[in-house]
Amino acid sequence: MKPTTPLSAYAGQRADASQADAILVQRMAQGDEQALGALYDRWQGAVRALAVRIVGDGMEAEDVVEEVFWQAWRQAERFDAARGSLATWLLTLARSRALDRLRAIRRTRVDASLDDHEATFPAEVLASASASPADAADHDERARLVAAALAALQREQRECLQLAYFGGLSQSEIAERTGTPLGTVKTRMRLAMRKLRETLAPLGEQW
Questions:
Q1: Which residues contact 91 (CB under 8 A, 6 or more apart)?
Q2: CB within 10 Å: which end of the chain, N or C, has fewer?
Q3: How much is the pLDDT for 118?
Q4: What integer best gives the mean pLDDT of the chain?
Q5: Which residue ranges does the chain devote to CATH 1.10.1740.10?
């Protein structure tokens, strides 16, 4: 018969994990980005699982995960271990953000009324100085598809792309310009490019 682990040992393990989580949040409140990364590694699986269950889409759930940990980073000083565990706090944030995302998905339609700068973005991407009149129809269709794909991105993701490809900023410079953790900038860029590639796959291998 295998020896059993005393319940007191399990309780001690939970206490140690809770203390480690609280320390990570304290470090986050002091601006430690490595603590954010460690917290993400520990809890992103649970947060993503809840998000997928609510929104029903893996890519949309990735956006929710990003939003949850970005909110946790900005509001780290608000966490009070005396009021509940970190798991409860993070999953409460996840549920709220996922429900917001679900409502947005249900009412989202392609917004053709981008502001002037954003409206010219796809044209700048696709424009060619040597384009002939015969290419105009194809060019216009590509521009329309790119505009729709960009409009479907989250504002923060679109901002990162604009700063990188038109502002010429590195990811570190984008993080400094926007006051966003570097890891979050990298995630936004990765998600944005993945979404564009999937949406614009019909345009060819360039995406």
A1: 46, 47, 50
A2: N
A3: 42
A4: 75
A5: 7-107
